[in-house]
Amino acid sequence: MIRCLEVVEKKIVSAWEALSCIDDGTVIAISGFNMATTPEHLILELYNLYKKTGHPRNLFIISDALPAVPGRALDKVAEELYRENDRNFIRGILMPFLGFSPWLQKMVMDNMIEAYSWPLGITAYWFREVASGRPGLITKIGLDTLLDPRFDGGAMNEKAKASMTCKVELINIGGEEYLFYKAPKPRVALIRGTSADVMGNLSLEDEGIRGSVLSIAQAVKARPDPGVVIAQVRWITEMGTLSPRSVEIPGPLIDYIVRAPRERHWQSGSFEYDPRASHRVIPPLKPEIFEDIPHQSWKEHEIVIARRALMELVRILNEKRSPVLVNIGVGIPALVTRIAIEEGITHLIIPVVESGAWGGLALPGQDFGIVYGPFALTTIPDTFSLFEGGVIDAAILGFLQIDSEGNVNPSALPGRIPGPGGFPVIAGGAPRIIFAGSFTAGPSDIRVTENGLKIVKDGDIIKFVSRVYKVFFSGRLAQKYGKEVVYITERAVFRLTSRGLELVEIAPGVDLEKDILSKMEFKPIISRKLDTMDPRIFRMRRIGILEDVVKTMHK
To answer: Are residues 214 and 359 in the same domain?
Structure first.
């Protein structure tokens, strides 16, 4: 490492010149939210260096999210490692989400590497704690879930449980339980920006997000044992040509600048560059915005779910009598934003995405994190402070399983380990949580008519189970801290009470016993005031929510 830490006049070097300073066994922090801020060129060249020389090896990688999408960046490396049964390049990983890296998931499931997964906001803010010289992060997030050391403690496989390189400890402060997250301090950072001047000042003007690049650089530079920061950019500029307001990371925090070819510096998973992704063009939030963007096809009953979720936000709006700040998750929750645009209420229902965008339209799939038309961008650590601190009014999240206590599992099954992502922090911090998803899973034929639902063939996978496979959200703690929790499906709406789940609404056209109760592994409380879901959400045309809101506000 001595050569890396020498004062050098020339910061702009080739990838191998910069990366050759990394020793065997180094802990490396890599930025990246899917492909946004992912230094793909540095990742691939680091692996090429290893293949050529056999070094560096036994690396431990920590990321603020996941620097990969299928077939790109770290997933591409993982594919080669898995196919060649190479267990020497990567020793272990700490990452919030593996869902877009099928090959990393295979390596984890086959116990080839140690694997730990903390929530997205916890990992991002952990970098800040390390940057401040603190030993780790203290939080209530993760209590009573798979992150709690009384359960899995964030370890994703047997190799991790045996090594425990990253630990979650249960501590007591003032009679209250907290979790203490600890991991080894990173020695090298691989980060990404758009431009850097010859002093190393880094700007992110063409990146879709601000990410956690500054926090990662600060964590690596913190004492004791300050390390090396290597930044990938597309452009090199003269000294003094970057406005101080556009500099995300000051030059003295960066040791090496590596210029990347355009094919290894994509803004997002499905496209290299779009001016809307870098917010040089801000499109109007009108239905026309859907015409030429990557989109997901939705079934009509999924639209029903999203509409009912939006109406729950409108209920909160009417109570507050001011705009609702809401986190929108992936899948059906993301559809809520689209419907809000169609209904013309984006000035009243304001989404905040995990990657830091306020307002606008979040893209789906491997482009998630990129938002068209936001009015503000915050860093990932700052954004998750909003979530954990309950600054937002509500969150809409998906689910895979729900049990009688209101516990939620959003994604985990045997042989499927995507990681918690941002879910535990968002669900743990928001004062109101709306879980939105289909009532059952599997192939189905559910038809939406003017008169409600007609279930021709139901999915054969039960989602309302006696006990969820892994607890990501604790119904007990939600009750303890007075959270409002509602579970919305196309045929039934439940609310969390002190006695468990209470069925409060059913869709017109469904049979309570046949279509709901017989498809659950437990019997919910049936409300004495069991209501029918608003029939307007089953009609495939504009509902007229804005007009309803205006009338309510003028009462």
So the answer is: no
